[in-house]
Specification:
heterodimer, A: mainly alpha, two-stranded antiparallel sheet, 7 helices, 2% strand, disordered N terminus, B: 529 residues, alpha/beta, FAD/NAD(P)-binding domain, seven-stranded mixed sheet, six-stranded antiparallel sheet
Chain lengths: 178, 529
């Protein structure tokens, strides 16, 4: 169990903007990652950036995904760290190389990879069940779900229109290059 | 106002149908009470619930699910005994389930209403299209429908059809680029693309803003450009109707002369209340309405209450086209292909409607790619590529009323008020199955015409949430529950405002017909009260 002070520190380290983070955000994070160890937090951040091929990621979301995945599967931190150390051991330089590597055939490695990438892109953890009131899913983020970013100039995040009536009769300006 | 009754008319249910009937009656000076099992929830809260939902594909998830007022996806609400899991997405709150529809406002065709006479299958409606037509006009005005006055909505490529006595209240929205391109490439092969008349404002209308393409008609329009039943619940209240929420009707009380004399409701606070009225309208949707009649032991001399349950059986196709079409700009659907809407083939098999969905597809696209092991920068590139080319076709089949497709009150499961929940027995009929090969053929042709790569072309049969048949309308009291007025054959002062009265399903979303019938019944009741 890590302390709130450590947590605030790790949050600040992640964002590089911790000084400006409001205190309540730290409290909320403390609640979310009460079961996560600080080295897990750092490993998860590194692994996520590797899998997503992004130089930076939202620190609060990173903690949230780690916490939710850990709550869904207490062995998730071990699995995640095992994946990260495999990447290091085998000198895997890119996620493309990872999915082509022999150890990616290990279902645990593949499942862990997909869980992490899914949470970042889809904005939830767990598996949706249709036609039921409840399922095991938990929200990570709506507007921060990375799946919306590649088309942000062309389509809306539902409920957040940026156009006016009939803007849709024209294709996006980028059409010729799409 | 009559002092001997609590109201002239009591309406059970504040959805689009009940609220429109209540408004028409209140407007004419009748005293009206509306009973609603759920609560009033403001739009902004539903929008926030949606944004915070972890399962956004579940259209019930932003809505309340209380132990005394379940939404239909609650695990306890419907027990299925048939092979098909019949589970439409129904809501309990002020305004009802039109909070999450896509506002399709089609009219039935004259032929849809004469299915038995023309094609020898199913049943006829006990009224002609021409009798319903003036009420369609009023329903379109009430719901603020925009539509094309020139298209052949029967899908045969002819002139304007079905006949209209008045133009649509609003001009249709502009065609999406997606729709334009699909039409340009598929129409030469003989597919008639029809604009879907819909209850989304294209100019400010009845306090609603014009649609700005938030692309979230289901599960909630964030700005209220799309019609939902809360509009007329509010209008009814403003016209003097009394709306009582947290009030679940559980008994219609019969008097000595076969008239209904009172209704009993229960609230989550434990209160049991008996209210009297001259007339009663049950507008509790196509599953709850027959349940209330059955547990009250009324209106069922025909033994048809709860039978003939129909939905438009659904199926879907997703593929990736060979050019960017950019779905997701505008409302979530705009129309489709109606070539199989009517014809002699209906003697043997169901008519079919293909609708083109226009949802922002990114989550579905990303999910598929991740499952394929696409990660990193390639994932972003592929999301943009595939999302721009994603085509989603939603198909419905006409269904026939079958005695064995039923909804019944449960004998074992009760809600927190002690009121029975539902048991459904549903099988997809042979009439639907006979039409499947035509759909398969169409799907293959669509994919070929658009140079597509199939994502999914065999979804199995799906729910479409269009409840019909369960309190079936007919001329003969021996084999139907209500007459052409929606008046129960057994009780002269009991009317049913639900699409559950519809005896021949056609392929079109039945809400507009339900509202037209509700306005018509209000006129009839107003003359008698």
């Amino acid at each position: 169990m890590i302390t709130r002070r450590k947590l605030l520190y790790s949050g600040a380290a992640l964002t590089g903007a911790g000084l400006f983070a409001p205190l309540w955000a730290g409290v909320a994070l403390a609640q979310e990652v009460s079961s996560a160890a600080s080295d897990d937090v750092e490993s998860f951040r590194q692994l996520s950036m590797f899998l997503l091929e992004r130089p930076s990621l939202d620190a609060a979301l990173s903690l949230r995904i780690l916490a939710q995945c850990t709550q869904n599967d207490p062995e998730f931190p071990q699995k995640m760290k095992a994946l990260w150390s495999k990447v290091g051991q085998h000198h895997v330089r890119s996620v493309g190389q990872l999915s082509g590597s022999p150890f990616y055939r290990d279902p645990v490695i593949k499942d862990t990879t997909q869980k992490i990438v899914s949470a970042w892109y889809l904005g939830y953890t767990g598996t949706p069940v249709s036609l039921r009131a409840t399922d095991g899913t938990r929200l990570v983020t709506f507007t921060g779900a990375l799946a919306y970013q590649p088309t942000a100039d062309a389509t809306v995040i539902p409920t957040y229109s940026r156009g006016k009536t009939n803007y849709w009769v024209n294709p996006p300006a980028t059409l010729a290059n799409d | 106002m009559n002092q001997d009754f609590d109201a002239d008319v009591i309406v059970v249910g504040s959805g689009a149908l009940g609220s429109n009937a209540a408004f028409e009656l209140a407007k004419l000076g009748k005293s009206v009470i509306i009973l609603e099992a759920g609560e009033h929830i403001p739009r902004w809260k539903i929008v926030e619930n949606f944004r915070n939902s972890s399962n956004k594909g579940n259209y019930n998830s932003p809505y309340p699910n209380e132990p005394w007022a379940h939404h239909s996806y609650d695990e306890q609400y419907i027990e299925n005994t048939g092979s098909f899991e019949f589970r439409p997405g129904m809501l309990k709150l002020v305004g009802g389930t039109t909070w999450h529809w896509a506002a399709a406002c089609w009219r039935y065709l004259p032929n849809d209403m004469k299915l038995k006479t023309l094609y020898g299958v199913g049943r006829d409606w006990p009224l002609e299209y021409s009798e319903l037509e003036p009420y369609y006009v009023r329903a379109e005005i009430a719901l603020g429908v925009c539509g094309s006055d020139t298209q052949d909505q029967s899908g045969q490529g002819g002139g304007a059809f079905p006949p209209r006595s008045s133009p649509y209240p609003m001009a249709p929205e502009g065609d999406t680029y997606l729709f334009q391109r699909l039409r340009e490439r598929m129409a030469p092969a003989g597919y008639h693309f029809i604009h879907e008349p819909n209850g989304r404002a294209t100019e400010p209308y009845d306090g609603r803003p014009a649609c700005s393409g938030n692309n979230n008609c289901m599960p909630v329009c964030p700005i209220g450009a799309m019609y939902s039943g809360d509009v007329h619940a509010r209008h009814a209240e403003q016209a003097g109707a009394k709306l009582i929420t947290d009030a679940t009707a559980y008994k219609l009380e019969k008097g000595a002369d076969d008239k209904i004399v009172a209704i009993h409701y229960r609230s989550s606070t434990g209160a049991d209340v008996r209210l009297t009225a001259k007339y009663f309208i049950v507008a509790a949707h196509g599953l709850e309405t027959p349940k209330l009649l059955l547990i009250s032991e009324v209106a069922n001399s025909s033994d048809q209450v709860g039978r003939n349950l129909m939905d438009h059986t659904g199926q879907g196709l997703q593929f990736i086209a060979d050019e960017p079409l950019w779905p997701g700009r505008g409302a979530v659907q705009q129309g489709g292909i109606f070539n199989r809407r009517d014809g002699e083939f209906r003697k043997e098999r169901a008519s079919v409607k293909h609708s083109i969905s226009n949802n922002v597809p990114n989550i579905a696209v990303a999910k598929r790619l991740i499952a394929q092991g696409v990660y990193g920068k390639e994932l972003d590139e592929r999301i943009r590529h595939d999302a721009a080319r994603w085509v989603d076709v939603s198909t419905v089949y006409e269904t026939l009323p079958l005695q064995t497709n039923t909804v019944r009150p449960s004998r074992t499961r009760k809600d927190a008020l002690g009121i029975p929940m539902l048991v459904v027995n549903y099988e997809v009929g042979d009439y639907v199955k006979a039409a499947k090969s035509g759909v398969t053929e169409d799907y293959a042709h669509f994919v070929q015409l658009m140079g597509g790569t199939v994502v999914e072309d065999n979804t199995g049969y799906q729910n479409r949430d269009h409840l019909m048949g369960t309190v079936i309308m007919g001329a003969n009291p021996k084999d139907s529950v209500v007459n052409h007025e929606c008046r129960t054959h057994d009780h002269a002062n009991l009317f049913l405002a639900t699409t559950g009265v519809i005896p021949a399903s056609g392929t079109i979303n039945p809400t507009l017909a339900g509202v037209a019938l509700s306005i018509r019944m209000a006129d009839i009741i107003a003359r008698e009260v």
